[in-house]
Amino acid sequence: SDTDEEEERELKDFTQKRCRYIHIPPKEFVRKEQLCALLEEDESFRVPSSASAACTAEGEEEVQDGLKTYGWSAVGSQFIPGYGAGASGDDLWRIFFDDNFLAVQKAPNPGARALLGTTSLGSMVVACFDRSAGQDRPISCYEVADLIFKRQQGSDGEKIAYEAEKGKEQMAMF
Q: Residue 116 in contact with residue 152, Cβ under 8 Å?
């Protein structure tokens, strides 16, 4: 729509897809422009190669750097409801966090809460796995902010319901 195109032109500096990982800090925001300015590209973030690498104090060096950067005790992740493996389309949005965030982190993260639909504390990192390419793809701060605002407005209800139904169907087969 015209309004979306207008908004994208106004936030042009944030629309460049230069990075595969974007940090969502635990800070309040009101407007999309404000959120875009808060989001931080993090090209140095590394996804653990295994669950054990994410949970050990002596894991992969790059993962350890991420733990220190964000003050995490271990790396946890999950697909954003409506954008997981059961969703249609190639974009599978995933969020990384302190796997013990409810016990360890204190600062509420309203952006991550919008994405996960549940209490979210501390810094979080978002990525978009491209199903057709088989890897995380470059994303923009505008894309992440737009996704957060759409979630806050309830725009993804159908996607979440579709994915939940697909999950029930798969569970019924077992």
A: no
Instruction: Give the CA dihedral 9, 10, 13, 15, nearest 10 degrees.
Output: -50
Q: What is the 3-state secondary structure (H, E, C) of 54-85?
A: HHCCCCCHHHHHHHHHHCCCCEEEEECCCCCC
DSSP state of 37: H
Exposure string over 3-42, b if 16+ CB within 10 A, otherwise e: eeeeeeeebeebeeeebbbbbbbbeebeebbebbebbebb
CB proximity list for 167: less than 8 A, separation 6 or greater: 86
Q: Which two tokens stand for residue 26?
A: 């635990």
- Are 100 and 73 in contact by the 8 Å Cβ rule? The answer is yes
Stated pTM of the model: 0.82
- The tens digit of pLDDT for each residue in 15-38 reads 999 999 999 999 999 999 999 999
Q: Considering only residues 76 and 38, tell me which one the structure prediction assigns the higher pLDDT.
A: 38
Tokens representing 132 are 């057709």
Is the distance from CB of 92 to CB of 79 less than 8 angstroms? yes
